[in-house]
Every structure is written in structure tokens, then in C-alpha cells.
Amino acid sequence: MSLGKNNSITFGGNILDKEKAGKYTGHSKGRESSGKGSSNKYFYPIYGILLLVTIFITYIILQNTEEPIRTIRRFAGTFGYLTVFLAIVTSEYMAKMKKISGLPFMTAHHNLARIGLLLILIHPLTFILQGRGIGIFSPISPTNVFIGLAGRPAFYLFFLAAGIALYRKKYKNWRKVHYLSYLAFLLVTLHALMLGDDFELAIMRILAIAMAITVIVIFIHKRSASGRKRK
Questions:
Q1: Where does the sequence pass through the membrane (predicted)?
Q2: Which residues lie below 8 Å from residue 99, measured CB to CB, with a gap of 6+?
Q3: Distance (Å, rounded) from C-alpha 114 to C-alpha 4?
Q4: Which residue in 16, 100, 167, 195 has its CB near the most CB atoms, within 10 A?
């Protein structure tokens, strides 16, 4: 997750500076026909599955509605998790995202990232509305180890990755800090598996594990591609 110019936010480590934007436009077809082309063939099946997953998650939440604030918390947590995942996945399919959304890749990508961050913020705020106090934002929890070791640190890692990217021109190795967003996603997965109301179902637990594995694969792919470019 990172911030582009004009405070644009992006997950997945793809920042297109002005000088690179032209190169991307002029060579997107070439890239798609090479390494990117081989990965783009998986775009439609993946997003077809994700659409079904979104509908299924919505159904689960609506079947178990409780008090409004708790329902909002579940919605924000679950869909914030899913939206961050989508933002990470889209970084692997630039050309297809532009084609299917009708928007420049970075615009569509930024919109997903903004929504994800907003939902991530709303999730803990609902506890404050229930009288828990601002202590909910403490990275250390004396009452629940997995809140302290997973959910809360992940919250700060996401925003740290975004903040450092905002000042990326000042920090040569900002991208290394940006990769903390992948770690944050894995921590959120632990948080969801241990505490998420909607992740008590076996199918949701399998889904969370599959998403975590996918993010790990994307991270490895990006690191290996970065290594090849340096050579």
C-alpha cells in the first residue's frame, strides 16, 4: 500500500511517475504479450471468483444482522479485508484493470485502496461508538493477545506503508517499507481467523487462507521481478 502524487493511495507497489506513465502507455501491449500476458490470462477467472465471493460474504452478513453498530463493524472489517486484497491483486493486472473499468489503471487502483483504508479505519471506530474509548487504538492489548499481535499492528503497518510512500522522493528505499503492507495483510488474516465473526464458517476460513497464500505469491513474484530488473 502506498500513496501516489496528490495523496493517491496504492496497494501492491506500483507507482507510475510522470516520466514512467508515458512508457507504460506506449508499452502496455508489449508487456501484456510477454510476462504480463501470461499472468493476464488468469484475470477474468480470478475476478469472476471474487465477484461470487463478494456476493456470498454480503449474504452471510445479511443473514446474521445484529445491532446496527456491530453489523457496520463486521461489514467494514470483512469488506476492508477483501478490498485491500483486491487492491493488491490489481497490481498484477494493470492492462486488464484499465480495460474492464474504463479508467486509467492508477485511478481504478487508487479508488480501491481509498475504500480499503476507509473501511479499515471504520472497523475500530465502531468500538469507540460503543464506549470502548480510544484505547482500542493501542498497539498493545493486555486482554487479547491476537488483537495485540495481529489486528492493531496491521492497522498501523498499513498506514505506515502509505505514509512513507507519500514522501517517497525523500527516501530512496521507501519501497522496502511499503512491502510491510503485505505483512499487514497476513496479520489481518490471523486477526480474522482468530476473532472474526464472519470467519467462523469453514468456507470463510478456507477463503482467508487462500487469499493469504495469493498475497504471498504476489509478493514473491514482485520481489523476483525486481531482482531481475536490477540485473
A1: 42-62, 74-95, 115-140, 146-167, 179-196, 202-221
A2: none
A3: 12
A4: 16
Task: Pull the grid cell for residue 200.
Answer: 467462523
The residue ranges of DSSP E strands in 128-212, in sequence order, are none
Indicate the residue type of 24.
Answer: Y
Cell representation of residue 53: 465471493
C-alpha cell at 161: 506503508
- Quick: pLDDT tens for 141-168: 666 666 656 888 888 888 887 777 677 7
Residues 6+ apart with CB under 8 A from 48: none
Q: Half-sphere exposure (CA, 13 Å, Cβ side) for 179?
A: 11
- Mean pLDDT of all residues belonging to the chain: 74
pTM for the structure as a whole = 0.69
CB 215 within 8 A of CB 185: yes
Q: For every residue of 162-200, which 3-state class applies, written as one string?
A: HHHHHCHHHCCCHHHHHCHHHHHHHHHHHHHHHHCHHHC
Residue in the block written with cell 482500542 = 136
